[in-house]
Amino acid sequence: MTEARGEVIVPEGDPNLLIRLGSGLRSVLRFIRGKPLGGIGLIIAVAFILIAIFANQIQRHDQDQIFDSPNPDYKANPTTLELARNPDIGSPVVVEQFAEPSGKHWFGTDKFGRDIWSQVIHGARLSLIVGLGASVIAVIGGLVIGMISAYYAGILDLLIQRIVDMLQAIPFLVLVLVFTQISEPKVSYVVLWLGIAGLAITTRLIRSAVFAVRESEFVLAARVVGASDLRIMVRHVLPNVVAVLIIAFSIGIGAYILAEAAISFLGAGPQGVASWGKMVQAGRGSLDLHPWQTVFAGGAIMMIVLGFNLLGDALRDVLDPRLRGA
Question: CA–CA separation, 139 vs 238, rounded Å?
Fold first, then answer.
């Protein structure tokens, strides 16, 4: 805002920004038309991201609130026989456990009388934090290790790849469980260990992509003119492997969300936060009569993993030159 001759002049909006926004929107629409399944995945992913961001606004009830109602059969001093017939007769209130889905509780309640809808909503936040965080760690770590390994090759590449082989020799879930048992059950540690466990896969992907670029003419020309290795890797190699990074990042999110649900189901996940894996495990014992907790938590896992996998597959088809015409 500027002032001239007593008048306040408000600068107009940046036309280039509007042009870029319009171009971005057209690109998204073109992507959705060209890849309908990828568009569905994008919509699902965006929906879950918005749910996680606005969880406190759409939860309807506190996730830890226990709902109860007056006990019509309450008796102050019940006899032993009456207690044997009705264990709740001595309590003035009865916990609303295993309530069916209704207008008050859209997804019903669990065995502790807590609203399942609110737990599912807050579980989306944990899943996205874990999925995005672990994928970032795996992609950045895999980029650094894979690029150095492929660019310098030789003995260094041999040593790095043997370490990667050791990581890949251990099943992914077993490796994560070992890591989580040696640290506190915090979200940050789970994100870190999942990202480290996924380093082997992303390192191999980046390594193969860098091998395809390192002998290109523009890289050889940069070496001839005396460019440093760091400059060549950052200015010439990295831009040509960005597509692989995006694909690995988007597909990895769903894999890490599923891994977090698995370790939470086994009791080794983050404690003190709502987790879809723990919800599935908690509802497993009453699955035959009260399946709502397991069904809705498991359905949320299925939807978010499907969404990111569809999106990742579509991005791979669009960004990979070998599949662009398929």
Answer: 13
